[in-house]
Amino acid sequence: MDSFFGLDRVSPHDENLELLTTVYDAPSQAIVEGILRDAEIPYLAKSRGSGTAVKVITGFSMFGTDIFVLREHLETALELITPPDEIEELEDEEE
Questions:
Q1: Quick check: helix, strand or coil at residue 72?
Q2: What ranges make up the beta strands (E) of the chain?
Q3: CATH number of 17-82
Q4: Which residues are CB-neighbours of 83 under 8 A, at least 6 positions away?
Q5: 18 - beta bridge partners?
Q6: Is the overall model pTM greater than 0.85, yes or no?
Q7: What SS3 state is found at 23?
Q8: What is the pLDDT tens value at each position of the chain, 95 positions in all?
Q9: Distance (Å, rounded) from C-alpha 67 to C-alpha 62?
Q10: Which residues contact 75 (CB under 8 A, 6 or more apart)?
Q11: What residue segments make up the domains of the chain, in order of their start?
Q12: What backbone phi and psi angles, to 5 degrees, belong to 11?
């Protein structure tokens, strides 16, 4: 990642947005966006740094794409995109 130029930083446009996840390929992005659309959760997908230009040229971006949701939808969205086995692991760690 490019921490010198800030290309790897998260930059939401609105203080009411929360980072849901960062994806690094088109299939992962399509899956997350599809889940959010099906649940009618509004989202913003933003490529980091020069990611959009890099995607056009190479087909992917090493900087990733951040997916943001409104703060009030964050918990629901996290539950939807987190695999069941990871949820169980997180619950076990909390106990």
A1: helix
A2: 17-23, 43-47, 65-70
A3: 3.30.70
A4: none
A5: 69
A6: no
A7: strand
A8: 444 445 555 555 567 889 999 998 888 999 999 999 999 999 999 887 665 666 666 666 677 889 999 999 999 999 999 887 765 665 666 66
A9: 15
A10: none
A11: 17-82
A12: -140, 85
